[in-house]
């Protein structure tokens, strides 16, 4: 540090490699400060002296030039952050949420909905500029036709904007918030979601559909049959592994990691389901119960396409096809869960809450206390046997046994 004169406290700092920087050393309040004025030769001696005089004048006026500089830098950084685009924020928010995803598929779904619906509309917008009407431009085109997707999309936009606020990239209220915000502008998802329900097989058509399915060969047909017998979700069936099947206790135990509600689910297996499993070939190198031709799990589309072919075959044979009673759309695999639920309500005396447990739905605490104790496996076992009998065309017997089981 070499004093250069002209202004009290002005020094030139010379580093071991010969670089030179102007430093103003002064006392501000009770602290000694070293205030950088720039490097030589970019800043000349004359310019350094002018900057030093200006800094000392601020100190005499009660201004700390060091803190003033820090505040100016903070304002610049904040301004730059608020200039971050929504498309850029999606990437960063996704990284921060990586641990929240159950699996890679969930992460891709989270990103895919934003890429498909949000980015074309607001992806180019700075985060600070996004308002309620911009979020509405994303949601309104699909709110009535793809209600479930739109509802999830709203939540994901809200999550990105919430991350942006906490990270300092925007200020103010979250325009994607539902309560007290979008709730006043969009109809409740529950009121329009009924139009978006998965087409379900009608009860009167179920035995004929099941008989047609049993005549078909291959892992896809058996997976769809097992799905029907267990009233399980497609993903649960397609990912089923042999070590989840307890033949001794006649149970299929699905681990929490593969369940939508992140809770282990025990499915009592009917004799028909056990016979199906016993007849399947086991591949030594593949743990999957229903493997695809290339070794991995079957695709959801494979099961859906099989149901479409069944519908088409019925039409070609002069039949009515297999369609949803309300929408008249061809039934899909996920709709079998609704068919099972309708069967319990309309053709048996089993409690509706027992069906909800069988479907692994989230139910109220009061009901949970009464019905989830021990999973009611044995009572559900009778229900699943009756359901298998109904699919085989033994409706009268199923109804009679359902009433008897409930009385017991």
TrEMBL record:
Task: Enumerate the UniProt keywords alphabetically.
Answer: DNA integration, DNA recombination, DNA-binding
Q: Does the keyword DNA-binding apply?
A: yes
Annotated signal peptide: none
Keyword DNA-binding in annotation: yes
Question: Tell me, what is one Gene Ontology molecular-function annotation carried by this entry?
Answer: DNA binding
Q: What is this protein called?
A: Integrase arm-type DNA-binding domain-containing protein
Q: Which domain of life is it from?
A: Bacteria
Q: Which GO terms describe its biological process?
A: DNA integration; DNA recombination
Which ranges carry the Tyr recombinase domain? 196-384
List, alphabetically, the SUPFAM superfamilies matched: DNA breaking-rejoining enzymes
Q: Which InterPro entries match?
A: CB, DNA_brk_join_enz, Integrase-like_cat_sf, Integrase_catalytic, Integrase_DNA-bd_sf, Integrase_DNA_bind_dom, Integrase_recombinase_N, Phage_int_M
Protein family (similarity comment): Belongs to the 'phage' integrase family.
Q: Which PROSITE patterns match?
A: CB, TYR_RECOMBINASE
Outline the extent of the Core-binding (CB) domain. Answer: 92-165
Gene3D superfamilies, per database record: 1.10.150.130, Integrase, DNA-binding domain (3.30.160.390), Intergrase catalytic core (1.10.443.10)
